[in-house]
Design goal:
With 265 residues, the chain is mainly alpha-helical. It contains eleven helices and no strands.
């Protein structure tokens, strides 16, 4: 890799990680268009670490309030809306963690076919459009209950199938449960924190067992571009869906899915 490919891949990661469009599908499409290969485990970890830093920085106020209240709930000071939201984020992460560990090898080997990715883009894109059009309401993330969290948490497991989009499927489930567009997006972003953090830790353990040269300059560049573009994307996305909604992303998923199917066949 050189600096140009580093910037492009980091931008793809940063601009698509939290949009309901599947960052993995975009990376595959870019690799095909550029004739490149997988960027490598170390670079993948660094890009996700950049996205993690961005979402933590953007929601630092909410996360700090949740953390303080959660610690207070453990010490017997009772629960409030911030501590409940913290518990919901942790509980909602458990299905993806358990199933991710059980299905990690299958997901990496069996689900990566282009036609599967394209089909997931199209099918779950249509489901997102239906949820946004028919079921969205005015509830916010603080009004979620245990049943809601389990539904969103198990929906997140579907993101093991490439093309589904972790953010897309969790927003879809939240919309079906009557959350507003912004609340669905905010909860999806908060739910990503333990997921990305856990995946980064697991990736570091795999990387520690591998032998490879480390291009520190490119890794630092990729980290910075991923973090900055992710932060900008979160801010833009929340403003965009407030005014326009999810339907443009549905159309985009359909077009991208059809492009991938054309490439496959």
């Amino acid at each position: 890799m050189d600096w140009l490919h580093t910037v492009i891949i980091a931008l793809i990661q940063g601009l698509t990680e939290f949009l309901p469009v599947s960052s993995q599908a975009h990376l595959v499409l870019y690799a095909w268009a550029s004739g490149g290969d997988y960027q490598g485990l170390d670079f993948d970890i660094v890009l996700h670490a950049g996205s993690l830093l961005a979402v933590v920085a953007y929601f630092r106020g909410e996360l700090m309030a949740m953390g303080r209240s959660w610690i207070g709930s453990l010490s017997g000071r009772g629960t409030d809306r911030d501590s409940r939201l913290a518990w919901w984020v942790l509980i909602g992460t458990l299905p993806a963690v358990v199933m991710g560990l059980l299905l990690k090898d299958i997901a990496e080997q069996e689900f990566r076919a282009i036609w599967i990715m394209a089909t997931s883009l199209i099918v779950f894109g249509l489901v997102l459009g239906w949820a946004d059009w028919r079921f969205r309401g005015q509830r916010d993330e603080y009004e979620l209950g245990l049943r809601d969290i389990l539904i969103i948490g198990f929906a997140q497991v579907l993101a093991l199938v490439p093309g589904t989009s972790r953010s897309g499927i969790t927003m879809t489930a939240a919309l079906f449960l009557g959350l507003s567009r912004e609340a669905a997006a905010r909860f999806s972003f908060l739910l990503s924190v333990p997921v990305i953090a856990g995946a980064t830790v697991l990736g570091l353990s795999d990387l520690a067992a591998a032998e490879s040269a480390t291009p520190w300059d490119l890794l630092a560049l990729g980290f910075a571009v991923s973090a900055l573009s992710t932060y900008a994307c979160i801010h833009w996305f929340l403003a965009f869906i407030r005014r326009i909604g999810m339907q443009p992303f549905v159309v985009y998923r359909l077009v991208l899915g059809l492009l991938l199917l054309a490439f496959y066949f």
